[in-house]
Input
Amino acid sequence: MGIRIWHQSFTVLSDLGAYNDALNAHFRVIARPDTEIVLHGMAPGTYRSHYPGDDIKYATLQYLHGLQFLAAGVRAESEGFDAYAISTLPEPALRETRAALDIPVVGYGESAMLRACQLGRRFGVLVFISELAELVAENARRHGLAERFAGARYVGFRFADVLEAFDDPTRLIEIFRASARRLIQHGAEVIIAGEAPLNVLLARNGVREVDGVPIVDSLAAWVKDAEALVDLRRAGGSGACRRGYFSGRPEKARLREVLAFYGLDSLPSS
Output
């Protein structure tokens, strides 16, 4: 039996044709033949520009945007998807969405960090937006991995630079290697290449290590986690915790009512 996964990006994918195509191509390589990954992005018009860089660096705006992730997760479950993937390093509303849904919910950063811990003692993260380093550290703590976290640093270029580099990535790859080496000097034995656009660029160009230190394919990590969690449920395994304030699941009818009250039930996705 095949698996259908709802992929939720922090970008408006309809504005980013080249990135959208690169994602689809990468997923065809890493997913099982019977796994269908359906790409979704934020509602058109969410941002002033095509990429949410200015919004992501503020906790207030990211919190508000996180409501789209929760609403999309509810829609994914109602449409019969087998798993829901928050496919962005900041992981907006991951905890809340996981508590709300019956289907498995995976996070890009969480999957990457857990995989990194299987590959080395300490991991480091390279980010497009320097302000995200603080959030990445907080997420590592929330995931129980603070002692394995070697730090997060600005990689030296932005999202727009990555889009422009798909035709000739040579310069950006050299900048990435230099930034990775600085993290390695601070104790990183595994590198997480920040957001998905950089992940795709490195993977399609065969960049899998720097000086013997592995680079985690974060997209592959969450795809395989999602597939495994669906397999486990189908085999009679347990679902997520449903006890307590953070993990207790609200009544579905009431959740839909609240989403409708705030106008989140009818947001389109790109």
The CA atoms of residues 113 and 208 lie 16 Å apart. The longest helix spans residues 59-78. The chain is about 45% helix and 15% strand.
